[in-house]
Specification:
The chain has 223 residues and is mainly alpha-helical. The chain has a domain at 123-215. The chain contains 10 helices and no strands. Helix 7 packs antiparallel against helix 8 (157-182) and helix 7 packs parallel to helix 9. It is rod-shaped and about 100 Å long. The model is unreliable at 5-20 and 23-34 (pLDDT under 50).
């Protein structure tokens, strides 16, 4: 039993002294606590200079969000990100580097959110534009059918002129809106055709009124 004790101590010494120097076991706990003591000093050192790296990252995220269409499709988030980045620059000017760091990190997060919001908003805008074009095309088909149906009423060309002008304008608007979708201008595409269905409905009502007048026979005169 007396011979095993030195061996046990030697093993402990080798385990904790990889460089050939014995380290007492009671020194291990203070060494583990060292990072906790140094952490405030590290943070203080980080706030002793402008957080240029974080500001640059925020600016890059903001540029990416703008390129993704955040100004148009996620305006609220983009504006908030821009304001946070400006606050970071203002804090640097006031030498409040801790506040500048906080605002730069906030601007980065908001810019990334704006980029995601832009992607979602763009998808919704494309869907809305395509639905508006479909509604305009359906209205054009409807008035064409109504014009063919009123042919039996033998309406003179001058009474059909307004309807034909409306149809021509509607077809041109649909073509222009489709080109806008191809170029990625979804909000503009929807705006181009938004009034087409109402204009065509008005012409259908007018055509129906003219056809009714033509088909109703006047009462016979009595002597």
């Amino acid at each position: 039993m007396a011979d095993r004790t030195p061996i046990r101590r030697a093993a402990v010494t080798r385990t904790h002294a990889p460089f050939g120097r014995a380290v007492p076991l009671y020194t291990l706990k203070p060494m583990r606590a060292l990072p906790a003591v140094l952490l405030p000093l590290v943070l203080l050192a980080a706030c002793s200079a402008p957080p240029q790296k974080e500001i640059d990252l925020a600016q890059g995220a903001l540029d990416a969000a703008r390129a993704a269409g955040a100004e148009q499709y996620a305006g609220q988030e983009y504006t908030a990100a821009t304001a946070a980045l400006q606050q970071a620059h203002d804090a640097v000017g006031q030498r409040d580097y801790r506040l500048a760091l906080t605002r730069a990190l906030d601007a980065h997060d908001r810019a990334q959110g704006a980029a995601k919001g832009a992607a979602d908003g763009k998808a919704r805008a494309r869907g809305d534009a395509e639905a508006a074009i479909a509604a305009a095309s359906a209205a054009i088909t409807q008035i064409h059918s109504r014009m063919e149906a009123t042919a039996t009423a033998k309406l003179p060309p001058r009474e059909l002129a307004a309807a034909r002008r409306t149809v021509a304008a509607a077809q041109a608007a649909v073509q222009k809106a489709r080109a806008a979708i191809t170029s990625g201008h979804f909000l503009a595409a929807k705006d181009i055709v938004k009034d087409v269905p109402a204009a065509i409905r008005a012409q259908i009502v007018a055509l129906d009124g003219l056809a009714t007048k033509r088909t109703v026979k006047p009462p016979r005169r009595t002597r």
